[in-house]
TrEMBL record:
This is ABC transporter ATP-binding protein. PROSITE patterns: ABC_TRANSPORTER_1 (PS00211), ABC_TRANSPORTER_2 (PS50893). Residues 534-592 form a coiled coil. Residues 5-235, 292-511 form the ABC transporter domain. Pfam families: ABC_tran, ABC_tran_CTD. GO terms for molecular function: ATP binding; ATP hydrolysis activity; DNA binding. Residues 507-527 are annotated as: Disordered. InterPro entries: AAA+_ATPase, ABC_tran_C, ABC_transporter-like_ATP-bd, ABC_transporter-like_CS, ABCF_ATPase, P-loop_NTPase, Val-tRNA_synth_C_sf. It comes from Pilimelia terevasa. SMART domains: AAA. Keywords: ATP-binding, Coiled coil, Nucleotide-binding.
Amino acid sequence: MANIINLDRVSKGYGAVGALLTDVSLGVGDSDRIGVVGLNGAGKSTLLRLLSRQEEPDEGRATHRRDLRVLWLPQTLELAGEATVREVVLGTAWLGESMGAEHEWAGDAGVRTILSGLGMGHLGLDSAVGSMSGGERRRVALAALLVRACDLLILDEPTNHLDVAAVAWLAAHLRSRAGALLVVTHDRWFLDEVCTVTWEVADRTVRAYEGGYAAWTLARVERQRVEAATEARRQNLLRKEIAWLRRGPPARTSKPKFRIDAANALIADVPPVRDTVSLQRMATARLGRQVYDLADVVLDAGPKRILDRVTWSVGPGERIALLGANGAGKTTLLRMLAGLGRPRDGRCAVGQTVRAAFLSQELHELPADLRVLEAVEEVARRVTVGDRDMSAAQLAEMFGFTDRRLWTPVGDLSGGERRRLQLLRLLAGEPNVLLLDEPTNDLDTDTLAALEDLLDSWPGTIVVASHDRYLIERVTEQVYALFGDGAVTHLPGGIDEYLRRAGAAPDRPAAPAAAPGEAAPVAGAGAGLSPAEVREARKELARLERQVGKLTQRESALHDRLADAATDFARLGTLDAQLKELVAERTAAEEQWMALAERLPDA
């Protein structure tokens, strides 16, 4: 495999932001499939601009193979409003080159497959781009890239505004596509499906890992474990040095000066604390027995019928995922539940204790004229987090807005930072019902992991519309779909069942339809388990995972206490007995998990 792009000791920075990349050396092979991950603002987009030679490095050198053809899907698109879909996708309106006469591409099965796979059939080739939504324009631009051949395809957040079926199709298409691929995405499932190499942009450098998201996560944990062990040895040595320095009189001799210099060197070499995002569970108001009760609801979005005489209930503590193709009406349904729209007919009853918060896809509701801290204080000056009462500034810091960013105007924030601020303001209101419309858009993978950790233990009701398969399978327990037939359809088999019913599952055999009156088969379930038993088994798996995690933490703490009691033999005996009991309890929990997982092969 030959490299088509090389970066040699490249550095790049911008004014007040400072250096984003320093002394970076890497290459892109002609068949590489690379996923790029990192925190918002870490330098991912800068790296892409350097690789595509849209910008030159401050130091070092970026070289391309001769006649290299690169196509790029940026986060921000500029398409002429008067141009039609035909002119953008197949003509010269965006990329400056035509796909040829209409009869040529019309007879090309590959082009037709791309247009169909991205769900563009309903848009119409003669539709003007200017009247379309941001998601529709993005699909048009993506189609324009996919119908053309290139040596390197660069995609910046390609799954934004794609539904689950379109994401599955895109993953299958990119796996079979010739040429190199470089993709920045927060979609963990997509990374695992498509990428064979993962680049992590952090600490002004780029680290390469073999494999997709799962392999990168395991490798990063191992790297952090090694760093933690190294840091623990450093701290032990540091404590010994400081203890020695405090002994007093010997410090006046010539020998301690060497010790003082050694201790100062250790302190100077300690790395700075990382700027991490820590999301903790917000205090929630108590929910009553009723949350949402829909009775014979008719709901329209303009001329389109979304719900047709639907009766549906959402109870306290339920965790629901809404699936459906773009335009199916997921946002319209969420807006009705949030009280921002009314049904044409029927009744939508809301519980008296419900305090709903709606996270929309748009960012226009953020006050662009305020600074970050002012935008938080506009919602709440003080917030209860767990058992702590916190100021708005302390709360903002939990979400990654450090002192230097607290006074940044909202209008100057990046897309990911605005999304994070939007979520912060939402949770600062201490709701007990969360209505989330594509919550993962523009968030980096670390913030997503923290968000999922928050939602995993959040005690209120959650209704989320998302194309992010990883998030849906992590934080929700029930899946409902809008198939365009005016109904809200319960899917016991989750996303796999949705893909089968939508007819879009790549390389999957069609499942036999359930007979009338029978429950639909559950994807991945063990033989003989009913849908209800599968749900209970998955809940028990999650409980056992949390239990093993807590026992592992207690075991680690006991090891520390054993080390501290090295000379106290009586205490050592007591702690050792506690440790044996704890290890036995953890082993039993792990064995229960394994036995249960065998009954659920997809667990």
